[in-house]
Amino acid sequence: MTLVYIAVFAVCFFSSIIGAVCGIGGGVIIKPVLDALGAFPVSTINFLSGCTVLSMTAYSVLRSRISGASQIDFKTATPLAIGAAIGGLVGKDLFSLVEGLFDTPNTAGAVQAATLMVITIGTLVYTINKDKVATKRVSSAVACALIGLILGIMSSFLGIGGGPINLVVLYYFFSMETKEAAQNSLYIILFSQAASTIRSVLTMDLAQVSVALIIGMVVCGICGGIAGRSINKHIDSERVDKLFIGLMVVIICINIYNIAKYTGLV
């Protein structure tokens, strides 16, 4: 089990670095990779991924705010975040509903993997072509909250915290550039993941999850956030976009493997 823990901690640390650089939280990497490792049940992976993402985003948002380097548009991002927090709770219930439809948790895992793969492909296509797409500037608080609600539902259901979906929404609906979108995305993820994690703590049987594992993942999330912020300061938006595109390709491949594994094809 020690080797499994080391592998899990390494995944969480490096995922949190990339998550902090790109503004995707890291859950979109942690979730499919831990699924592929198959060391824990799907619901446990969702919770562990959430703990890591929560710690990383909390550090990144607070550190940016304290340092005066924050690019968060609170007028836009706060209603988005509140909507995402409510959506996060709904998404948890939706996953529980889907999980209850099948005889084994593996089938629910296959549904998650397939949905995440489709969304990731859409995100990749948009990101490659975003310079050709006319964007909008949504300003209504009600519209922001509704958009956040949908983001929260999707992110919580997929167990990824927010990730690439947030960036596409911020690019298209709010005309944000890459680094600005990354910081606002982390702020939204912080709210949605906090609501989702609190819900899990209150409803899950945490006796099956090692305290040492939870603490280790939280530490990895914070350390990854520290490293990611440092890297982000030294690279431009174009390189962030390239990293993000490469990451999407990797995630698509991992999800193809996970679908095959959960459906018994491998």
From TrEMBL:
PANTHER family: MEMBRANE TRANSPORTER PROTEIN MJ0441-RELATED, MEMBRANE TRANSPORTER PROTEIN YJNA-RELATED. Coiled coil: none annotated. It is found in: Cell membrane; Membrane. It is a multi-pass membrane protein. InterPro entries: TM_pro_TauE-like, TSUP/Inactive_protease-like. Keywords: Cell membrane, Membrane, Transmembrane, Transmembrane helix. Belongs to the 4-toluene sulfonate uptake permease (TSUP) (TC 2.A.102) family. The chain crosses the membrane at residues 7-30, 36-62, 74-90, 110-129, 141-174, 209-231, 243-260. Its main location: membrane. GO terms for cellular component: plasma membrane. This is Probable membrane transporter protein.
